[in-house]
Structure formats: structure tokens, C-alpha cells
Specification:
Length: 552
């Protein structure tokens, strides 16, 4: 197989580790810290997780570890959407496992959690691992979105692990996947299966974070990839000076990607979903906000700009969130009746007639294509697939309508030509940045350290990430510590709480202090491509978000 020069060089890259994990592996011991509890719902969670709730924090220090050389078999599974660096997590597990005992074995379950249930596995060898070091994607073993959540599935996992003599599972995934990991860890403990479960924090959306999980892996690479593309478009906009570009960015449940990309590129405008919800802004208020900036810039001779739009914005607009919730409930209750109608106008009319007057007014004011997108096939939870709603097109159409009204009133004489973009999959499988390559390798290496310490129900935690890698701190936190109880499918379920953009946090405050200037002037920043070679201040820097959050 022929490889590009960059790929050949990335194979040779040696990821950096926290100083404690660079010690000889048999000279690293776990240190037990304070016991933990969840921020909320302590009584309910303790009842659901009697074996794994309240476990202590774990760190590592130097010391003789006589248990490290014990032969064990480990299984690893990739769960959910792809994120840059997943291969390095597996490489880190593999290298630590073999350093502890060359006879240890690592199995990759194929195609996500379903690979465990179907006993589809691949023994990962040096030759296989070396083909994937420092590369993007999850193609080494594939991923999937199957959830292991029924008693029969738990029992099947225990059966497969016993059959294959697997002593531990590492689940690499986001909040839902790590919630499943916690439930599986609790089940294995209750039935004395002898299998530990460790999680690793993955999602480019950046909404799996807290004091001990400072960033989810893949976020760094994805936002730098998107920021390069945004910068390219901004350079084009500043050259042609005749287009408004509306760019929708991945991130349904939080606006971390949009905020980080705004900090990196300084666009004309960037909408932050959490602020929209906090201010209870209506769709028309958002449209007027954009329209006012278009007119202001036009009056200054700038008939161009760039607007960043979070993928999940539409759910954060109060009246739209209510409408979507109502439609989800209606289509769940009357699915058979709805499915008999022709797609398009017939279904839209049926929904409009069934809504109350308030929701009907919101629904019928939307462009036809947006109405249709709200009624598309549902996701596995029966909800509208927000990622398929072209919010940037909705905003363009509504801004055009408002500008037409301003022209008729004589308050706008400029031009408005628009282009729309969606940046999503472009960032999920890029070559990981040096930061993500190092971080992911450390997460994997650290995950094995937790396994070899006999721990279960933990998530691999590497912190102090704004410092150089040798100053990072390795350890583990109980997954139950990150949970709360939320309403899912009509009943309360334990889930890892999604981290939203904090409006009183340093990243948002920095953005808010600058955005008026960005709107008035053209102060675009062009980040360029991710750099893998050169000085650390160019190649190894974390995100601006992380730097601001950890500034002294």
C-alpha cells in the first residue's frame, strides 16, 4: 500500500506522556484519594449503583507494583461517532499492556458495542497497531451506536467475556457510551463476572467535560480543522467582498465548537445557543440581530461577512424548542396516522392542523423546506434529527425577507448575496493534532494503568492539559460522579450530564467582549492548516477555550 509523505511521517511520531507514565511501568502505583459523589440525585444514583457509587479519586505515583506483571486479556470497543485520536487511545492501551507483560492480549470488538454481543473480535498485534498510529478515523475496528442496556445484553457481554477469558473492557465513547460503561461495570460487579470496565472520554462536540475531564478527545483537532476552513472562507469573503457566508457547525447539544472556532477566526458574527436560551430570544429576534449587522456593514461599504451557526441552535430557541417537543410527542402518539400521508405538503398540513394556535403560528411561519425537515425520519429516540435541519438556510431566507422589507422602507440600499455551508464530517477523522495524538495516547496508556490496578467503573482522566505534556496529571474518576437523573423515554434514567457553554466562563466572556468590534470591522483571523512539525507554540498548543479556562 502506498502512503502519503505526511502519513509516513505521522507513523514515526512518538506521542508524549505525562511524566509519571514515562516511568518504568512496574514502578507506578495507584494512589487513593477522596471518596466522591454526584453533584445531584445522590440517593437515586447510590441505589442504582450500590457497588460502584462513591468510589475514590485515583492518581498515580512512583512505587513498586508487584501486580503489574500479571497476565490479563483486555477488550476495547469504539462507540458512537468518530473523533480524531481514537487509534492512539488503542495504541496507548496496547503499548502499556505489552510493557506490563508481553503475553498480555488486546482484542478489538468490531463495529462498536454490537461486536461484543455478537462476539466479533480481532486480536490486535504490533503489525496492526503500527498501521494506525497517529492517524484519524476509527477504521482499525470500526464503531457503532448499539446501546448495551437490557439485562439480556448485560448477560451476553458477561458470557462473551468469560468465553474469551477477557478480564477488562475499555469503552471509548461519549456521554451515552460512558453511561453504558458505568451500568455494565455495575452489572459485572453484582454478578461477580470478574471483568472491569474503564471508559475514555470521546466527542468532538466538547460537551463531555468537567473538573477532571478537561476536554474530550477529538475536540482540538476538529475545531482546528473547521477553523482552517472558516479562515479560508473568510479570506475569500474579504477578497470578493460580495458574499455573506452562513456556516453551520457540528454540535447539537452545546456550542463549544462554535465558540472555539469564533475565538480562533474572529468572524463577523457567531451565535451561541446557550446565550439564545438564556435570553429567551425568539427566531425573529435572532434574524433581526443578523439583519442589523448586515445593514450596519453595508452602510460602511462592507457587503460581506461570515456568520457561524451552531448545529443545535434551533432547539435552544424557546418557541422552536417547544414546537419540536410538541411535534416529537404528536408523531410518537399518532405515528400510524402520520405515516399514511404523502410526504411534503400533506404531512405539513396535517401537523399544522393538529397544533395549537401558538405552535401553529411558529410552524406555518417557517419556510416549506424547513417544515419538511422537521417531519423527516426520527432518530432512534423518536426525536427530530436536528442535524438534518438546515438552520443556516432558514436564517438566510428570513434575513433576505427582512432586508426586502427594509429596502421597501428605504432603510437599506446595499446588496445581500449569501452562501451556505455545513462543516461536520470534515473534522471527525482528520489526522489528529499533536495535542490530540499525545492526549489520546495518554488516555489509553492511563486506562490500562487503571485496569492493572483492579479498578472498575472509572473513566480515564488526564488533566492540567494547558501545560506541556510532561506536566499533565494522570488518574481516574468514577463515572457515577459525573451522572445525574434525566427524563428519557418517559422515565428517569442515569446519564452523564452534558456540559454546556458557561456564559460566565472566561471563553464566552472573551468572545462577548470582542464580538461588537468583529461585527463593525473586518478583523478576520486565518489560522491555516494544522501544523505537525515546528516549534511547540505552533504545533502543540491546546484550544483557546482550554487555555482561557485554565489561565491563572
Amino acid at each position: 500500500m502506498k502512503y502519503s509523505p505526511l502519513q509516513q511521517q505521522r507513523y514515526l511520531y512518538k506521542p508524549k506522556l505525562p511524566s509519571i507514565l514515562r516511568e518504568e511501568i512496574h514502578a507506578i502505583v495507584p494512589v487513593t484519594g477522596d471518596s466522591t459523589e454526584s453533584a445531584t440525585d445522590q440517593t437515586e444514583l447510590k441505589k442504582l449503583f450500590p457497588k460502584t457509587y462513591g468510589l475514590p479519586l485515583i492518581s498515580f505515583s512512583k512505587g513498586e507494583n508487584r501486580e503489574m506483571g500479571k497476565k490479563i486479556n483486555v477488550g476495547v470497543v469504539l462507540s458512537g461517532g468518530q473523533a480524531p485520536g481514537g487509534h492512539n487511545v488503542i495504541a496507548g492501551i496496547f503499548d502499556a499492556l505489552k510493557a506490563a507483560n508481553p503475553e498480555n492480549t488486546l482484542y478489538g470488538f468490531m463495529g462498536g458495542p454490537s461486536g461484543i454481543l455478537e462476539d466479533k473480535r480481532l486480536e490486535l498485534t504490533h503489525d496492526i497497531i503500527d498501521e494506525y498510529r497517529n492517524t484519524g478515523g476509527f477504521d482499525i475496528i470500526g464503531s457503532g451506536r448499539t446501546k448495551i442496556e437490557s439485562p439480556e445484553q448485560y448477560a451476553r457481554c458477561a458470557e462473551v467475556c468469560k468465553k474469551r477469558s477477557i478480564d477488562a473492557l475499555v469503552v471509548i465513547g461519549g456521554d451515552d457510551s460512558n453511561t453504558n460503561a458505568a451500568v455494565l461495570a455495575e452489572y459485572f460487579q453484582q454478578v461477580d463476572a470478574g471483568v472491569s470496565v474503564i471508559g475514555c472520554p470521546k466527542t468532538i462536540d466538547g460537551d463531555l467535560k468537567n473538573e477532571h475531564i478537561e476536554i474530550s478527545f477529538g475536540f482540538d483537532t476538529a475545531t482546528k480543522t473547521y477553523s482552517e476552513l472558516i479562515g479560508n472562507i473568510q479570506r475569500d469573503a474579504n477578497s470578493a467582498r460580495k458574499y455573506w457566508h452562513f456556516i453551520r457547525l457540528m454540535g447539537r447539544s452545546a456550542s463549544h465548537i462554535g465558540l472555539e472556532c469564533a475565538l480562533q477566526t474572529q468572524p463577523t458574527m457567531a451565535l451561541i445557543s446557550e446565550e439564545v436560551a438564556e435570553k429567551k430570544q425568539t427566531l425573529l429576534e435572532i434574524v433581526d440581530q443578523i439583519t442589523d449587522v448586515v445593514i450596519m456593514r453595508s452602510n460602511a461599504g462592507f457587503n460581506f461577512g461570515v456568520v457561524l451557526v451552531p448545529e443545535g441552535l434551533i432547539e435552544f430557541i424557546p418557541e422552536m424548542g417547544t414546537l419540536i417537543s410538541t411535534i416529537n410527542d404528536m408523531l410518537a402518539r399518532r405515528a400510524d396516522e402520520f405515516s399514511k400521508l404523502d410526504q411534503g405538503d400533506a404531512q405539513a398540513r396535517w401537523v399544522a392542523d393538529a397544533l395549537d394556535s401558538t405552535d401553529r403560528k411558529v410552524f406555518t411561519a417557517l419556510p416549506k423546506d424547513i417544515q419538511y425537515q422537521l417531519l423527516m425520519d426520527r432518530d432512534p429516540h423518536g426525536n427530530v434529527q436536528v442535524s438534518r435541519i438546515e438552520t443556516e438556510k432558514l436564517l438566510i431566507q428570513m434575513v433576505e425577507h427582512r432586508l426586502k422589507e427594509h429596502k421597501e422602507a428605504g432603510t437599506f440600499s446595499g446588496s445581500f448575496s449569501s452562501l451556505n455551508h455545513f462543516f461536520g464530517y470534515e473534522g471527525r477523522c482528520a489526522f489528529p493534532s499533536n495535542f490530540d495524538a499525545d492526549y489520546c495516547y495518554s488516555l489509553g496508556y492511563n486506562a490500562f494503568m487503571l485496569i492493572s490496578s483492579g479498578l472498575t467503573g472509572y473513566i480515564s482522566s488526564v488533566t492540567n492539559l494547558s501545560a506541556p505534556a510532561d506536566q499533565w496529571k494522570a488518574g481516574g474518576i468514577p463515572i457515577t460522579m459525573m451522572m445525574n437523573m434525566e427524563q428519557r423515554h418517559g422515565s428517569k434514567k442515569p446519564v452523564i450530564k452534558k456540559a454546556l457553554v458557561e456564559l460566565d466562563g472566561a471563553p464566552f466572556k472573551t468572545f462577548a467582549s470582542e464580538r461588537e468590534r468583529w461585527a463593525q470591522e473586518t478583523v478576520f483571523v486565518y489560522p491555516g492548516a494544522i501544523q505537525y512539525f515546528g516549534p511547540p507554540e505552533v504545533c502543540d498548543q491546546p484550544t483557546i477555550t482550554l487555555t482561557l479556562e485554565q489561565q491563572k
